[in-house]
Design brief:
The complex is a heterotrimer of chains A (330), B (450) and C (339). Chain A folds into two domains: 180 residues, Thiamin diphosphate (ThDP)-binding fold, Pyr/PP domains (Rossmann fold), CATH 3.40.50; 129 residues, Rossmann fold, CATH 3.40.50.920. Helix content of chain A is 37%, strand content 19%. Chain A contains eleven helices and 14 strands. In chain A, helix 7 crosses helix 11. Chain B has 450 residues and is α+β, with helices and mostly antiparallel strands. In chain B, the strands form six sheets. Chain B has a six-stranded mixed sheet. Chain B is globular. With 339 residues, chain C is an alpha/beta fold. Helix content of chain C is 45%, strand content 8%. Chain C has 13 helices and five strands. Classes of the chains: A alpha/beta (330), B alpha+beta (450), C alpha/beta (339).
């Protein structure tokens, strides 16, 4: 381990920079990513290093950005687009869903669309209803797109480099609240395979399955629960699609209790998919409690700070939920 | 304070106990821990120890009487104490010194009339108001059967057992009937732990040695009277029930025991070398039968109502003869064990059986039974199916016989075995195939490695 | 001519002669043949559809042959096109094999898209056709991406992006034209204005006389021509391709044309009159082109008739071939979702 600590945001920047250095087919396009350095500062300094031709400031045209990266990918480039807030991916959806995700299949496998679309999701910054959504399940549902959601700086770097090198359209989901978190990150370029979950904490009593911003909260909750003698295993999915079903099933077989945790609203959320995967698998015979989903409330994210805080699962909610399950009160 | 003496409970589903004999009588001074009387349940005979020091008084249950569990049947009086007045015949709190099973019965709504603990628990788990249930037990006690009937009448599927998938899996593997397992989860749900507890349940109280023969109650000049009670009665009832409900079909087959005897000889050389127990023919047979059962799961099944439960493991009961009785301890998961371990287990259980030290879990959960009368010189015989199982194998002695091999007369050690099968669930061809496979593996024991 | 689009300058006879002279005989004959192939193909597709042999729906471009041919004639082999749901003509003009196109329409494994795409998504990526598109204006933003790719790769390739009048009102059109302008991309936007979206007429859906006027809103030239005059189209698009290739300035070329058939197979043509359709049929682009070539003595009228007949013969053979092809294997059903 190098021992060097950088932030999640810096790790992403490093991934972009190293890939652009390594492969001249990689270029960036997004709103205010050039001289401004990106709305959150992710691309700071890249335009100066690679020029305006490879770090392209776009007009406020999300659909145009998505179409641009799709068309460029068809000519053999490996573009990385940015949508400033995941909420605006709604505007880009036509090109991502009807074109990028489908072209390879529609054309009988005779075309390749190697693009990455990066976007930050999540609440907690007071940005309110239209700047705080987590819509990952929408795109998990579209065959042809891969969906990645890292939780730590090192994984953000490794997974982003891997995503850029992947020949498929990849939706790379960053969490706003994670941008400033720090962690050890190797300096050289490295990859982490897509579709492999990571067990962040091993345990015997209960499995928490989660990703992105919730991983840290799950680990904190696990520490608290350990004091009560409840030994929690925390699985960080890292990639939502393709999903690492094996790790999930093995863990639930071991503990017999599955707690699915995500920030996005509960109804119709990705947690339902995970619950279904568990219930259909051989882990079913080992369940000793109902599968529980702990997720955001079914409401838009409000502005008021306290209300915002209480809209999504927090450490204390995770502790309570897990404790109830462990005590067979559910 | 007078110490109540109760009819204790040894098994989860036990509702009554029958007093076999009193060792003490009214007025005797009893010390804590001394055996006071013996009790017969469906499966075993147990001695009941005194919960404290005192003078035995107020005995209300006689020998031979069947009493609901937890009923107070006597008191131990201290100096100067006298019997409590206006006591009811219903249950009191069991004194802590008397060993009772670990499970905590859930309390249920009881107003008038008593209910057995099993009935209470079932009612509580199913939110059934006991006041609405008529009791058909002794003194109108509400029994488990009464609660089941009431639940069935209530017409919803709460009659089904609530249990988690994990609990069901363990129950399946171990041959446990879920209805008998108390659930500690919400709404009375049976959790995995509950099944585990049930399996290792009932305190390991050992019984003392049974009297060498069933006591002859009385004699006339022409005949002696042996009362049909206790184990004798249970066996009688069971045999009738099995014979009358299951149409038995029988299949006899001769097996050339040459390979088997050779194998046994070699194994015993090993055993001697290692100072381990010798391998009996029964142990080898048991292992071979397990191999065959797992390939013919219909023979490894029980019929419960209209469910044929085909077990995924072979828990084979090995009949052990007792004085005027028979008991069938079960070796679990035989297919997973080596012959040496099986032999050791069979020997240990036979020993404990003769010492009346078997526990209820030793004799439950069987999926098939073997009865070997070979040591008595019997050539062949048929056995009656045991406890709802689909098959029982009666094995005769190994005897040298002249047989024809390649048109030549040779002398081979021949063993005859007879399978009795339940024709409700096992057809001729199925049984025949089972027997054919059994013969294959007995005559070619290398197949056990397959 | 009853049309809702403002009159545009027709090609002068002088210019027509110049253009004919500037093109080789091969190019001219090849173009005429392709235009007849398009006609023959569309008619055969229609026939097979009505016989129940083609599944789904189709969008025929009968009457629009000149727009397709004239826009693709100026291209090099390595230039690319993006097409529309009404793209059979573009595909043929870009040298597609009609046998493989037919096979694709019949859903066969040997079709261009292995039977997975059908009429609306037919593509010949190797041949330079990045695909028909089932979403109106779906290809326009991608054209920007292709142009960006060419620019970054430092080649002088050009992308011609087809779309219809309806697409000019999609948000994608506006975002893409703006981006093509600001990034100096080698894109030629070709709007085939056949004057109806589905049923929405140009007159009702636009407050401007010409779609090409919208180019100036984004800062590059736009021109409107007679889309049924293959030479006029060629003239305009050729200039646009040149501008794109050498100056990296986009152009919006508007080909005013007309589709003889309804929007799709389930169109009862309630939104236009029979008279209008008949009127436009007199401006048959294939017949006109043939007559100019005969007039200019490039070919005889017999030869012109031969070319027409051979196109129909070829399509008959293609249909026969396609019907003999195999269906995709069920085991391969999920292939191609991911790379």
């Amino acid at each position: 381990m190098s021992g060097r600590e950088i932030t999640y945001l810096e790790a992403i920047r490093e991934a972009l920079r190293q890939e652009m250095q390594r492969d001249e087919r990689v270029f960036l396009i997004g709103e205010d990513i050039g001289i401004y350095g990106g709305a959150f500062g992710v691309t700071m300094g890249l335009m100066q290093e690679f020029g305006e031709d490879r770090v392209i400031d776009s007009p406020i045209s999300e659909l145009g950005i998505a179409g641009a990266i799709t068309g460029a990918a068809l000519t053999g480039m490996r573009p990385v687009g940015e949508i400033m807030f995941m909420d605006f991916i709604t505007l880009a959806s036509e090109q991502l869903v009807n074109q990028a995700a489908k072209i390879r299949f529609m054309f009988g496998g005779k075309a390749t669309v190697p693009l990455v679309m990066r976007t930050p999701m999540g609440s907690g910054t007071g940005a309110a209803e239209q700047h705080s959504q987590s819509l990952e399940n929408w795109f998990v549902h579209v065959p042809g797109i891969k969906v990645v959601a890292p939780s730590t700086p090192a994984e953000a770097k490794g997974l982003l480099i891997e995503s850029i090198r992947d020949d498929n359209p990849v939706l790379f989901l960053e969490a706003k609240l994670l941008y400033k978190t720090k962690g050890e990150v190797p300096e050289e370029p490295f990859t982490i395979p897509l579709g492999k979950a990571d067990i962040k904490r091993e345990g015997r009593d209960l499995t928490i399955i989660t990703y992105s911003v919730m991983v840290k909260r799950a680990l904190e909750a696990a520490d608290q629960l350990a004091q009560e003698g409840i030994d929690v295993e925390v699985i960080d999915l890292r990639t939502l699609k393709p999903l690492d079903k094996e790790t999930i099933i093995a863990s639930v077989k071991k503990t017999g209790k599955a707690l699915i945790l995500h920030e996005a609203a509960k109804t119709g959320g990705f947690g339902g998919e995970l619950a279904g995967v568990i219930a259909e698998s051989e882990a079913f015979d080992y369940l000793d409690a109902p599968i529980v989903r702990l997720a955001g409330r079914d409401m838009p994210v409000p502005y008021n700070r306290t209300l915002e805080y209480n809209t999504v699962p927090q450490v204390e909610n995770i502790v309570e939920s897990a404790r109830k399950m462990a005590r067979r009160e559910v | 304070m007078p110490i109540p003496v109760i009819m204790p409970k040894f098994e989860m589903s036990q509702e009554t106990g029958q007093i076999i004999s009193w060792y003490k009588k009214d007025g005797d001074l009893v010390k804590k821990g001394e055996a006071m009387f013996s009790v017969e349940t469906d499966k075993v005979t147990m001695d009941v120890e005194s919960p404290g020091d005192g003078v035995l008084a107020g005995i209300t249950a006689k020998e031979g009487e069947t009493v609901p569990v937890t009923t107070v049947i006597a008191y131990l009086l201290g100096q100067g104490e006298s019997l409590p007045t206006a006591e009811s015949a219903s249950e009191a709190q069991p004194p802590e010194n008397v060993s009772t099973p670990v499970e905590q019965p859930k309390s249920a709504a009881i107003s008038s009339g008593s209910a057995t603990p099993v009935a209470q628990r079932m009612a509580a788990a199913n939110a059934l108001d006991l006041t609405s249930v008529t009791g058909t037990g002794l003194n109108q006690t509400i029994t488990k059967a009464d609660v089941e009937a009431a639940l069935a009448q209530r017409g919803n599927d709460e009659g089904k057992v609530r249990a988690t998938p994990a609990a069901r899996r363990i129950a399946r593997e171990e041959g446990v009937v879920l209805d008998e397992v108390p659930g500690s989860g919400p709404r009375g749900r049976v959790q995995e732990d509950d099944v585990q507890k049930f399996l290792s349940t009932t305190s390991q109280r050992s019984a003392q040695v049974l009297p060498p023969q069933a006591a002859i109650l009385s004699s006339t000049p022409d005949y002696d009277i042996v009362p049909l009670k206790g184990m004798r009665r249970t066996i009688a009832d069971r045999m009738v029930s099995s014979y009358q409900s299951a149409p038995h079909i029988m299949f006899t087959m001769s097996v050339d025991g040459t390979s088997l005897e050779g194998l046994r000889k070699r194994m015993n050389e090993q055993a001697v070398k290692r100072g381990e127990e010798k391998i009996s023919m029964t142990a080898l047979l048991t292992r071979a039968v397990a191999w065959t059962l797992l390939r013919h799961s219909r023979l490894n099944s029980t019929l419960n109502g209209d469910e044929i439960r085909q077990y995924k493991t072979a828990n084979i009961g090995v009949a052990v003869a007792l004085n005027d009785g028979l008991i069938v301890p079960v070796v679990r998961n035989v297919e997973k064990k080596g012959v040496s371990q099986i032999a050791a287990e069979i020997n240990d259980m036979a020993k404990r059986a003769r010492e009346s030290k078997l526990t209820p879990s030793d004799v439950s959960g069987g999926t098939f039974t073997i009865s070997n009368l070979g040591p008595f010189g019997i050539e062949q015989f048929t056995a009656i199916l045991n406890g709802g199982q689909a098959g029982i194998l009666a094995v005769g002695a190994v005897q040298k016989e002249v047989v024809v091999v390649d048109d030549e007369m040779v002398i081979r050690p021949i063993m005859r075995m007879t399978l009795s099968a339940d024709h409700r669930t096992v057809d001729g061809a199925v049984a025949a195939q089972f027997m054919a496979d059994l013969r294959s593996v007995l005559e070619n024991p290398d197949l056990l490695l397959y | 001519m009853s049309t809702n689009v403002q009159p545009y300058e027709p090609l002068s006879e002088k210019r027509r002669k110049e253009l004919i002279k500037s093109l080789s005989k091969e190019e001219l004959l090849d173009s005429l043949q392709k235009m007849w192939k398009i006609r023959a193909f569309e008619e055969k597709a229609e026939e097979l559809y009505m016989l129940g042999k083609i599944h789904g729906t189709m969008h025929l471009s009968i009457g629009m042959e000149a727009s397709a041919m004239g826009s693709i004639l100026p291209l090099r082999q390595d230039d690319l096109i993006l097409s529309t749901h009404r793209g059979h003509g573009h595909c043929i003009a870009k040298n597609a094999d009609m046998k493989l196109m037919m096979a694709e329409f019949l859903g066969k494994e040997c079709g261009y898209c292995r039977g997975r795409g059908g009429s609306m998504h037919i593509a010949d990526v190797e041949g330079g056709n990045l695909g028909a598109n089932g979403v109106v204006a779906g290809g326009i933003p991608m054209a920007v991406g292709v142009g960006l790719g060419f620019k970054l790769q430092k080649t002088d390739k050009v992308i011609v992006c087809f779309f219809g009048d309806g697409a000019a009102n999609e948000g994608a059109f506006h975002e893409a034209l703006n981006m093509a302008a600001i990034y100096d991309l080698p894109v030629v936007f070709v709007c085939e204005n056949n004057q109806y979206g589905m049923s929405g007429s140009f007159k009702r859906m636009f407050r401007i006389p010409r779609i090409s006027d919208r180019a100036s809103a984004y800062g590059f030239p736009g021109v409107t021509v007679d889309g049924n005059d293959v030479l006029a189209v060629y003239d305009a698009v050729n200039a646009a391709v040149d501008r794109a290739r050498n100056q990296r300035i986009p152009t919006l070329v508007e080909n005013v044309t007309y589709r003889w058939r309804g929007h799709s197979k389930s169109d009862a043509n309630r939104y236009r009159t029979k008279e209008e359709i008949e009127e436009w049929k007199t401006k048959d682009p294939n017949v006109r082109f043939a007559s100019w070539l005969v007039e200019a003595k490039v070919i005889s009228s017999d030869e012109a008739e031969q070319i027409r007949k051979s196109a129909y013969a070829e399509i008959d053979a293609a249909a026969e071939f396609a019907e003999g092809c195999a269906e995709p294997a069920l085991e391969s059903i999920e292939e191609g979702v991911y790379a």
